[in-house]
Amino acid sequence: MKEHYTVLIVGSGPAGLAAAFWMKKNVPAYIPNPVSVAIVDKTRYPSGGLINDGKMNLTPFIGMDDYTDNRIDLPTAWEHIHFFDEILVRHGANPELTGIDERVVGVWRDRLATHGLELVTETRQRHIGTDRSKQVINSMREELQGAGIEFELGQGVTEIIPRQDGLFEVSLEREGIPGTITCDYLLLSPGRSGSQWFRNQLDTLDIPYSLSPIEVGVRIEMLRTDYPIAEVIRDPKIKMTAENGDRVKTFCTNPGGKIRFDMPEQALHYKGRTLTMINGDGRRNSSTPNTNFAILNKIGLVEPEGDTEAYALDLIVKTFRAGGWKPIVQRLGRFLDYRRSKPGHFGNGERVQPTLPVVRTDGSIGVVMPGDINIVYPARTVHNIRDILMRLGQDMPGVMHPDNLLYAPEIKFQSVKVDVSGTLETKIPHFYVAGNGAGLSSGIVGAASNGILAAKGILGHLYPA
Ligand SMILES: Cc1cc2nc3c(=O)[nH]c(=O)nc-3n(C[C@H](O)[C@H](O)[C@H](O)COP(=O)(O)OP(=O)(O)OC[C@H]3O[C@@H](n4cnc5c(N)ncnc54)[C@H](O)[C@@H]3O)c2cc1C
User: Fold this and answer.
1) Rounded to whole angstroms, how far apart are CA atoms 148 and 143?
2) What domains lie within the chain, and their CATH numbers?
């Protein structure tokens, strides 16, 4: 590892990787290459959340805040999408797209609209699959390393000090051993797992930010045949505005997929316990008889209860407490009746079998506990979950089957939304932020777009027109 880099990227998720690829492509070749670039990550494997299921929403209308916040126009949004998508395909992502049959998508849009549901119709998606993502990431890393971009893995950044001479002094820690490097340009893209550390850095450096809304919800699991829309659009984004104005949506659908735990580094540590939330994924080369997806209710708070992150953490702890420090699973019929699911409600030949082991009466060791989501989630969220399920059930009756399973907590939160320039530079010159941790994107494609935008900003400084 060098002592100094021109550009230091902290975080090897889609934001950091896309930034590196953009620099690799656009650093002018006609001068001796004076630009040294390194990616630092606290984990030993580069990728951040790219290692997961990898459903790529190839549209500016999902998770791409660069476009929806007016930092970039539509052609630029498509430029970013195509740039990152081409890299993934070149490195082995599945070349097939889903959601491209406009006529069929239009039929679903019209059917759902009659029940007050809005289907996002820009639904071109590419699915990498958890079982293929490692191969894609390894290949991407090789290309970057071949171009001289260094990966410093297993190194957590602990502190950033902007110096008087304009350089940044970055403190790192590897297995308890501290080190320091300097850089001219810094891009922080620490994702959700680095959000608490990141917020502390912003406070220390007096970089302004606001607190983002959170999304509180459940993951539902049902028979694959009961959710036919996902056979046409692999991850349909269906939105509902509740009567009180609340926004509710479906998210991260996995036809033939499994319920799983969130990434360990995103777990909450509470009084000696590790609380890992629920998530879901799908594999390209194997499948279950089930489909799962999340239902999320957006919650924004205002003073005096303005700290959405603290609110989310309280809710997570409360849910785990009610589940004996495990996530809760509940049969939909019991949820609708406001009655607890019990271990005896599993293993009796029910229509839907859980893809995560449930605590049973026979003492089998389960990782999710039958319980009652109604007693932990806010009434408003419970009401909204019931509402969207009933509307979906009008078109797809199987969605309301009482044996379907709800899992909680599934809560998405980005603690902060950083105040940035049009190219994601903070108020400190040459200090850039990107991705989910900075509250500027959600999803792989949005994070990658952020990375590209920040890279453009840095190259704009390095090579003014
Ligand atoms: C189970 C699961 C499934 C998902 N499926 C999908 C999907 O199908 N489609 C989709 O679009 N999105 C999906 N997502 C979300 C997606 O992973 C994120 O939106 C995306 O990865 C965000 O990218 P990012 O670059 O902002 O951050 P990340 O990908 O989270 O990367 C941040 C990186 O920064 C590193 N880091 C943090 N702090 C430090 C520090 N102090 N020092 C050094 N390194 C640090 C972390 O180790 C991490 O590698 C999924 C997420 C999960 C958990």
Assistant:
1) 9
2) 4-93+128-210+416-462 (3.50.50.60), 213-413 (no CATH)
